[in-house]
Amino acid sequence: MLRNTKRKGGFAPFLLLVVLASTAACADETGEQALPDKVLFVGNSFTYYNNSLHKHFRMLTYASGLFTPENSRARIKTISGGHLPEHDGGFQPVLAGDDWDVVVLQGHSLGPISEGTAEPFRRTARKFARIARDHGTRPVFFMTWAYTGRPGMTAKLDAAYTDIGRELDAQVVPVGLAFATVTTERPNLDLRIADARHPSLAGTYLAACTFFAALYAQSPEGLDYDAGLEEETALYLQRVAWQTVQTYAKR
Q1: 226 Cβ contact partners less than 8 Å away, ≥ 6 residues apart
Q2: Residue 136 has pLDDT above 90, yes or no
Q3: Mind listing the domains of the chain with CATH numbers?
């Protein structure tokens, strides 16, 4: 059940009365939780492929009726092949450029789980989370997916992102777990392109649905935005996203 409340210069976004325990959004003075209307994504090509994750995410929010182009904003800061520490020089200026509700932190696909890069990832995650909170912005982590033919990456990425999320009391969006489910259930549905790493349009759409489900604590099932995918495929990916977020929250 949702209700409205005034916030940010007269804009009245919806507030959740009941929110998944893992959402951990900033509470207002009533103790209820405000839906983020400004979301900044920091990452690399996993974020910007297919005309960018943030654009598909925004289209889902418009389809849901939660927001319009006039009362919400999403933006990306990406570096091709970038590791999270490589954003150090530009992170704070971009964050300070607007009153972002959420900043999404996405590391290199191997960064959190490889020797030599795992500790710099954790160190930077701690720093960025502290900077974000100093700006009144909630840090959220983007759990990425395994490469094609390397399913063992899923558990490692799950552990790495879950650990840093718990340490920093920050939400983790389990995109990698949603990818693993689809890869198992529908191996012929390509979520990655031929390089075995980067997302296909279906993969980016699944990621966008998972972010919608996690950040707004509601199912994207039935939303009238399919990114040009077949209707049945889009509905399936919406359903997997919601089920994955619910299952992960119970952990």
Answers
A1: 205, 233, 234
A2: yes
A3: 37-250 (3.40.50.1110)
